Amino acid sequence: MLSCDSKRFWEGFWQISDPKIWIASTIPMAVGAAVAYSHLGSFSWYWFLVGVVAIYLLEIGKNAINEYIDFLSGVDRFVTPDKRTPFSGGKKTIIDGKLTLKENLLIGAVTITAGSLLGLYVVFHREFAVLWIGLAGVFFALFYSLPPFKFAYRGVGEAIVGFNFGPLITTGAYLVQTHTISTEVIAVSLPLGFIIANVLWINQYPDYEADLKGGKMNGVVRLGKEKGVVVFAALFGLAYLVLLILALVSGNFLWLLPFISLPLAVRAVKVARRHFDNIPRLIEANAKTIQVYQLTGLTLIAAALLPLLLE
To answer: Does some domain include residue 227?
Structure first.
């Protein structure tokens, strides 16, 4: 039977791991793998699952380090009860008394090391070129919050999240399967990158005052809530524009399937425009943006695989 302290730690570990958001990394992995299968006609479940575990470990490590830094800077402590939502305020492991600062740092070090070792296993036993993608992933996981770069505090965190969960993971999953990278998989990865960046963008609204007070100068803090809605709309627009160009250039109009999420995106923008300063009403925009990301991922997988079924 677990002691009270062990139970607290493992509950905290589960909370910082936050499996419900692993969908953010699972989707680009699945899309990259689906495009690879459509090009190659074969698929290795083993190497796909090794990659999935490695990415999950890096994601947990990034969460833990970010929690550590955000508590020290004060941004998590400065979030008032009326601004706390399921989509903001960090993982709350320190605020809730589930993990200490040192435990978050330890979890970050252990999981990033474990994820890196799994990545090296892929490099030396499957595809050496994955090394460069892996190095970029580890670098951004470490320095998303840590000094000297502190990307999330300097207005480039959204771009890094978009790059990591768009082109980096998607092309990495494709490369592991095919040993090469195609123009098509890069194009397919871009809408995912724009939309996941938008998930982070809209999730920063409830934390606006706390981030400003703690010196976390992300994009929303720099622009302000009202102007930030313009970027929110533009990121959706870029995602759908890339899909339209991809369909026209490739002649495969199945790449337009993600447009079924367009009404959700339009609704999210309308809500954000009307309620950017009303957090309880804004939550609908947070939820709709996540739904757009999920639906886009699923329809991209379908667009990649349907031609094989129709042959």
So the answer is: yes
